[in-house]
Amino acid sequence: MSQQPDYSHLLKKIQQKYDALSEDTENYLEGLLYSKTITYWDYIQTDALLSLQTQRTIFPDEMVFIAYHQINELIFKMILWEISQVAEKEDIDAKFFEQKLMRISRYFDMLTTSFDIMREGMEIEQYNKFRHTLTPASGFQSAQYRMIEFASTELINLIDNRFRATIDRNTPFEHAFEHLYWQAAGKDYKTGSKSKLLINFEDRYKEEFITFMKIYNTKNLWSRFKELPEKDRKDADLVKAMRHYDYTVNITWVMAHYNAAKHYILGPDGDGEATGGSDWQKYMHPKYQKRIFFPELWSQEELDNWGEDV
Question: Fold for domain 59-304?
Answer without folding.
Answer: Methane Monooxygenase Hydroxylase; Chain G, domain 1 (1.20.58)
